[in-house]
User: Fold these one by one.
Assistant:
Number 1:
Amino acid sequence: QVRLVESGGGLVQAGGSMRLSCAASGGTFSINAMGWFRQAAGKEREFVAAISRNGATTYYQDSVKGRFTISRANAKTAFLQMNSLKPEDTAVYYCAGGWRLTTARQDYDYWGQGTQVTVSS
């Protein structure tokens, strides 16, 4: 069974930085792309960033471009470096894995449990 485990969330002041990690385990044959999504209170889960299996291609939501960087150490480990954080970034952040590299929530088959990121003003 595929499992994604996240770490690195917590509380940070506006303008600060955080680094989220995601590690995949189990039967990960179907995981090529890895991505990050977030869900703020009262809102739907939205795309943040995604990366191809070899790391050559990345996608970003416009609101985080230039501030966030997605990377991966290998096929089973991904990171999200978040700089210049804003209160609007406050949300539960989810790691996701799937066959194809897309920005669509429904295209990802595997999900982590989510980790809370809170940015204070």
Number 2:
Amino acid sequence: QVQLAESGGGLVQAGGSVRLSCAASGRTFSSYAMAWFRQAPGKEREFVARISRSSVSSYYADSVKGRFTISRDNAKNTVYLQMNSLKPEDTAVYYCAGRSGAGPYDYWGQGTQVTVSS
């Protein structure tokens, strides 16, 4: 099993950059594919980005492609989300998630708030 805790959120001006971190506790972190999701007030949770266990493969939602970069450091048990060229519509609670197989993401962090001002 793995426990996840996000950090790095806060208030940022439009056009700015923020890097979110997701620290994992547990001895099997490297066996989990990881992802970032986000949820804005009144909206459903949406997929943002995912990365494979060994960082060989990554995938992004169209809304963030070219602006966000997901990465991981298995030696540090940490996954990152580098967010550049931020827009007000990026404002949301960002969640880190993990899964050991092809099923649903079954491990989730508590979320971190990112607010992008105009």
